[in-house]
């Protein structure tokens, strides 16, 4: 493939075009006696399928190709625009929206607006042989964002982008932890230990998020707490500020629960004592049996001596 003819400041003459790709010759190779010339890549691909000149059909081979140095030098000296110049079509579209050339009036477009249109593309123009060198430093070449946000950013706008990239490093103003900008909102809304949050029980107090659980478990007047008689079976969970009231309101109920609990415990303990006594009696029986056996066996030994 050759160079896009659109890149050239002046339409290149037809001798500089490759008839295989219809573009301006890149590394031109002369292939036959007639001097027919094609891009090196184009004719190499052509030769893989057929061994004839694409124009005059005479027999050719890889060995008959000769570089056209003069044509290459002449093409290299032609003026081209940068690959990243404003496309003429885009430009015309943008221009006609501000300036209606068919009205017969002189174009009144402000120089600033003109410059803004120029901003759409690189204004570099130079010899084709210098294009590669220019592209090394052209600010309009898009590069992937170095912070990894996935955006493709023109080199000249990298600094501007680094100020608004979602992956740029920022510091949480509350806890001073560093993080990518895209995580900040969630961090503040859900995680930041220093962000001031209102009490979740709506007692009206505000505190750093990391103190909330201590506040709820030790201080908050609206946090439901266990009744002191929970072990006795009271399932009421009054708010901390109402605990004393609950204790005095439910004194009779608590006393009833305590009595019931005591009775249940007593019954359980009596059951255990019964079971232990029974076991004890069984063990005593076995011990007595063993004692008898022992006495009898020692009497038997004495008799034998
Ligand atoms: Zn070609
Ligand atoms: Zn030929
Ligand atoms: Zn450029
Ligand atoms: Zn980015
Ligand atoms: Zn934070
Ligand atoms: Zn509270
Ligand atoms: Zn209670």
Automatic annotation (TrEMBL):
Alphabetical list of SUPFAM superfamilies matching this protein: RING/U-box, TRAF domain-like
Domain RING-type: 18-57
Segments forming domain TRAF-type: 134-185, 187-244
Alphabetized GO MF terms: ubiquitin-protein transferase activity; zinc ion binding
Source organism per UniProt: Eutreptiella gymnastica
Gene3D superfamilies in alphabetical order: Zinc/RING finger domain, C3HC4 (zinc finger)
Domain of life: Eukaryota
The protein's name in its UniProt record: RING-type domain-containing protein
InterPro entries: Ubox_domain (IPR003613), Znf_RING (IPR001841), Znf_RING/FYVE/PHD (IPR013083), Znf_TRAF (IPR001293)
Alphabetic keyword roster: Metal-binding, Zinc, Zinc-finger
UniProt zinc finger (TRAF-type) residues: 134-185, 187-244
GO terms (BP aspect): protein ubiquitination; regulation of canonical NF-kappaB signal transduction
């Amino acid at each position: 493939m050759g160079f896009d003819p659109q890149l050239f400041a002046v339409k290149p003459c037809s001798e500089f075009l490759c008839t295989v790709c219809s573009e301006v010759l890149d590394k031109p190779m002369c292939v036959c006696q007639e001097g027919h010339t094609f891009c090196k890549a184009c004719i190499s691909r052509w030769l893989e399928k057929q061994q004839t000149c694409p124009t005059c059909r005479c027999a050719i081979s890889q060995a008959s190709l000769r570089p056209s140095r003069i044509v290459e030098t002449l093409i290299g000296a032609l003026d081209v625009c940068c690959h990243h110049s404003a496309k003429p079509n885009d430009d015309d579209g943008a221009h006609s929206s501000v300036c209606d050339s068919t009205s017969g009036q002189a174009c009144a477009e402000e120089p600033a607006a003109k410059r803004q249109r120029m901003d759409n593309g690189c204004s570099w123009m130079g010899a084709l042989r210098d294009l590669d060198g220019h592209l090394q430093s052209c600010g309009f070449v898009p590069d992937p964002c170095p912070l990894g946000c996935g955006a493709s950013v023109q080199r000249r706008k990298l600094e501007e982008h680094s100020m608004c990239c979602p992956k740029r490093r920022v510091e949480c103003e509350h806890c001073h932890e560093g993080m990518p900008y895209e995580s900040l909102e969630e961090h503040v809304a859900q995680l930041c230990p220093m962000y001031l949050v209102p009490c979740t029980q709506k007692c009206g107090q505000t505190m750093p998020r990391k103190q909330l659980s201590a506040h709820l478990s030790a201080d908050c007047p609206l946090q439901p707490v266990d009744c002191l008689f929970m072990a006795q079976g009271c399932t009421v969970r009054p708010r901390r500020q109402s605990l004393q009231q609950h204790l005095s309101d439910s004194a009779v109920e608590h006393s009833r629960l305590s009595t019931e609990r005591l009775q249940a415990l007593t019954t359980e303990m009596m059951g255990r004592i019964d079971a232990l006594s029974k076991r004890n009696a069984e063990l005593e029986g076995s011990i007595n049996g063993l004692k008898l056996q022992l006495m009898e066996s020692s009497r038997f030994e004495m008799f034998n001596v």
